Amino acid sequence: MIQALLLHILAGIAGLWVALRFVSGIEFTGSNQQLLLAGLILGILNAILKPLLDLVTLPIRILTLGLSSLVINFVMVWALELFFSELNFMGLLPILWTTLIIWAVTIPLSLLSRGKV
Length: 117
What we know:
By secondary structure, this protein is mainly alpha-helical. It has one domain. The model has no long low-confidence stretch (mean pLDDT 90). It is built from five helices and two strands, in the order αβαααβα.
């Protein structure tokens, strides 16, 4: 459980950092400590809240073949912008790219933690 939480926190921090560096339309005016805190909160949301949301939306996930999971992740990244005034997304496309980057960072870390890589 602790390992999964740390994995999600690391993925949140790394995903936000990569998105800030490579996706245009994202601004972060805060300090590095605030960026780490934003990644920490995103990781905690992904570790605790996302499994609950996945369970509640299971029928919708089955009907949409899992595409609604992307919407859940999208909403969680958007909610992060509401918590941190230093983080600004210029439109929906940067939020989508950030969501995909965080997802792409989480998969290898998850496989690595399970010993499959």
